[in-house]
Amino acid sequence: MKSKKLIGITLMGITLASSMSFSFAEYNPNKVINEPITTLSIKQQDSFKKTHINLIINNKALNHEETKVYMKKNGVTMLPLRLIVETLGYQLKWNAENREIEITKGAHWIMVKIDKDQYTFGRMSPIALGTAPEIKDGKTYVPLNFITDILKIDVIRDETGTIHINNKKNSIENLSILETTGKIVEIQKINERTRILVKGKQLKNVGYDIIALNITKDTKIKNPIDNTLVALKDLKKGDEIRVFYEPILTRSFPPIGTAQTIEVLKDIAVKDGKITDIRIDEKTSKVLDR
């Protein structure tokens, strides 16, 4: 009996040793493999599939039960709209009849419509993001690029899958100053304030051609040639101006904003072109363009 056990153990040892030697013999770090290489793909789950995707806004983690996030079949990440915009300080109003959601914060106005890939900011033409808002479990969800492309807020997804939303650096409150060149078509006096209506050449690209701009005590009116200040009373209907204004506009028509700087171009030819040469002598400077 002992001899049979000894033979069995010996055979197992030989088999194990041979398999180990085979494995070691197969490993060669310099060997070129021509066969296809198969990699293991781990599919990311979402909150509705029990694996939670953490959501952090301005470095504050939100309640797990409220921050359910899911991914569509095409890989688009969908986020809960109300929770996010209200955490960021926006107000949300639901229109059940039209299935529309109005989002406001100060002068900022955004409109989204359920099942329509149309997102409207201010008086701008609707923007398509590739994915429409939709309702899931009684809540409205929008694609992740709604945060980056409409609200203009930073979004980072770290190596754990956690989504970080941070509006401390970039947001629609920090958009760059806008500019247009055109004629003053009307000057209004409203409660001791002055408002000018400008028919701008560049405005047609954003859906309107007239803009109303309030002039405040901080608005600078100047001659762009020598930077001398121009008195408000010297502005006249028909004057050609270049105006720089803040990007925050009302949803009225025409939209109303605030002028930051007004350059009076009266008696100044404004010409588009490219500087090709600058020649300077003792008496004059000459700029050549084309």
What do these coordinates show?
This protein folds into 2 domains: 127 residues, Copper Amine Oxidase, Chain A, domain 1; 89 residues, Copper binding periplasmic protein CusF (OB fold (Dihydrolipoamide Acetyltransferase, E2P)). The protein has 3 helices and 20 strands. The strands form 5 sheets. A 5-stranded mixed beta barrel has the order 13-14-15-18-17. Strands 2-1-12-11 form a 4-stranded mixed β-sheet, with no helix packed on it. It is mainly β and 290 residues long.
Topology summary:
Blueprint: H1 2-26, E1 55-57, E2 60-61, E3 70-71, E4 77-80, H2 81-87, E5 91-95, E6 100-105, E7 108-113, E8 119-121, E9 134-136, E10 139-143, H3 145-149, E11 154-157, E12 163-166, E13 178-190, E14 193-200, E15 210-215, E16 220-222, E17 240-245, E18 256-264, E19 275-280, E20 285-289
Average pLDDT, rounded to a whole number, is: 75
Specify the biggest β-sheet.
5 strands, mixed, barrel
CATH class of the largest domain: Alpha Beta
In one word, what is the shape?
Answer: elongated
Helix content: 10-25%
Order of strands side by side in the largest beta sheet? Answer: 13-14-15-18-17
Task: Write down the secondary-structure element order.
Answer: HEEEEHEEEEEEHEEEEEEEEEE
Q: What is the fold-level CATH name, i.e. the topology of the largest domain?
A: Copper Amine Oxidase, Chain A, domain 1
- The low-confidence parts are 9-45
The CATH level-2 architecture of the largest domain is identified as 2-Layer Sandwich
Strand content: 35-45%
How many individual domains?
Answer: 2
Given the structure, what is the number of helices? 3
- The beta-strand count equals 20
Distance between the ends: 106 Å
The secondary-structure class comes to mainly beta
Using the CA coordinates, give the radius of gyration.
32 Å
Organism: Caminicella sporogenes DSM 14501
Keywords: Signal
Protein name: Copper amine oxidase N-terminal domain-containing protein
Domain Copper amine oxidase-like N-terminal: 57-163
